[in-house]
Amino acid sequence: MWTVMPSPIGDLRIIERNGAISAVEFSPFEQPADGRPLGARSDDDTVLAEAVSQLEAYFARELKEFDLPLAPHGTAFQQRVWEQLKTIEWGETASYGEIAVRLGMTSAASRAVGLANGRNPIPIVIPCHRVIGANGTLTGYAGGLERKQTLLALEQDALF
């Protein structure tokens, strides 16, 4: 099942499978890369409604930590990277190299971390936007650098 919600960074499509969120997608929406059908749209499914509610609270700056059942599909390495992303707190950032070191690798593995980061199927909730280049620059983001910049700016308490 899936639903669509408006947000400050464009419409988001939220996909639920087996009682857990499996994807959050930026518009324009495409067919799922894994080829699996989305199922029917359901705006009142309990899990989807809770995801919308928490995302709305996040964008309103009222929620800093998501509490949703998640089921991202990926390799074992990708899963490890995505778990590390969830430890980067609201308003904080980490470099790709720092994530590699947290995984017990050298910072030279930053490219592999970057590739896994880019394949995160549940952006925002699994905060891949909080990962930046070693020199502090904004680097690639599946949703585009403008969205990444907007999300990081949203989390800067000092601005408000």
What does this protein look like?
This protein starts with a strand and ends in a 6-residue tail after the last helix. The protein is 31% helix and 13% strand. The mean pLDDT is 90. It is globular. With 160 residues, it is an alpha+beta fold. It is built from five helices and five strands. The strands form two sheets. Strands 1-2-3 form a three-stranded antiparallel beta sheet, with helices on one face. It has a two-stranded parallel sheet with strand order 4-5. β2 and β3 form a beta hairpin.
Q: What is the CA-CA span between the terminal residues?
A: 37 Å
Number of helices: 5
Helix and strand sequence: EEEHHEHHEH
| Strand composition percent | 5-15%
> Which class of secondary structure composition applies to the elements?
alpha+beta
Strand order of the largest sheet: 1-2-3
User: In terms of per-residue confidence, which ranges show pLDDT below 50 for 5 or more consecutive residues?
Assistant: none
Kindly state the percentage of residues in helix.
25-40%
User: How many strand units?
Assistant: 5
**Mean of the pLDDT scores?**
90
Radius of gyration: 15 Å
**Multimeric state:** single chain
Main pleated sheet:
3 strands, antiparallel
What spatial form do the alpha-carbon principal axes imply?
A: globular
